[in-house]
Amino acid sequence: MLTAEEREGTNTNLGKSSWWTRLAVGGSLFDAFLMEASQQVGQSLLSLPWAFALMGYPLAIISLLGLSIASMWTQALLIGLLTEYRNMIASDINHPRHGDENYTASYHEVIGGLMGKWWGLLSIVVVFFALLGLSVAQIVASSSNLYLLSPTLETRTYALIMGGVFSSLCFVSSFRDFRLLSLIGVASTLYTAFYLTIEAARQGPIENVDYTAPTDFYSFFTGFTDLLFIFGGHTAAIEKASEMNNPEKYHVAYYYAVFYCYVITLPTGITGYHTFGSEAANHGNAFYLFDKSIERNIGVALMVAHEFVAFGLFCGPLFFLWEKLLKIENKSYWLKSFSRLIVVWFVVLVSVAFPFFGVINSVLGAFTTTFGSFIIPALVYNLYFSSDEIIEGKNHKMPFNLKMSTVKIINWIIVVLIVVLGLVCGGISSIKSLIEQVAEFKLFDPCYGCPTPADSVI
Asked: How many C-beta neighbours within 10 Å does residue 420 have?
């Protein structure tokens, strides 16, 4: 994170006036909403017809609503824990971060600071793999979409090109500087959702359409974990919340972002499955369901732009982790920015080695989203507030001012359900799907899942 002096210098260099700052730099609740809305639904929007075709209408809709409500609850828990951690630092004059106004907290620091070293180590492992996978997914998705626009290059080549483009995000110093980028992200998903919904509704059911989902245990829970993935960005929330004007209210912005997700996800999934039925289960990227058109190509291009934004939102916390590992978080802007290039190109290497698209969402949802977004916040909250003294001294309020006993019961219910449905059942299904993909496509595949070039842009 930039110091106040560095940020002031940057703004001065951008034009010696406040117009750019007002336009592009933020920290309000609205900025928090834009970031959450941008990161929550991106490439997952394109896999919704696929997920619905695996799960069927009723179960897909119920699962999406249930998971979204659970995610809002655990986000409130996580921000509550952040509030307690910040107050702990403020009241402890011996804490190494006491009085450090430029300090940006990380997920593992909050959990480890409240619960101890081993919880912190567990959290950093979960966060690393969650954010790595989310960042990889953006490169894989962008290369797939670019191939759809023009199959003149292999997807692996497109992934390398996008890695170079995404590297420019290393020079965006803070999440406070994401206002314009987040607006682009929201506009991209809004257009794409309307295109997918309207075009599917216009076409109507294809010939001999059938609605057989769910057909088996594995396919249902593969789709379930894809929906789980949509509401699993909690591991990237702490750094964003820490840099906003009111960190303790960040979860409110998340609530609004979830309602925005309802607007774009439910119509997309429902109309996509209604039109294509079981055929949608063969396409993890919904763009491949539609014929080439100017409208579709605009949507594809906008989704590539969105994946650029989402990459910054997901990889940003990895940048902070990297800077803290190197102990350069308070060093110069240029040193930190260039050091981040190492992180980006490591992500690019992983994306080229494992170029999965639809199935990667399920794997991530089953093994990292379950812990980082649901299990750890609920479990740590219950364990931390284990004494009357700590409960009486807490510095935040839960929704509806519920009693702590009620909060803990809800938390245990979430932990059990997510462990059973997401971690165990979803994990088994996603591993099976991943094994099938590996058996069919090799690592470092130069053009994973490439269709015939007849669908390219002329």
From this structure: 11
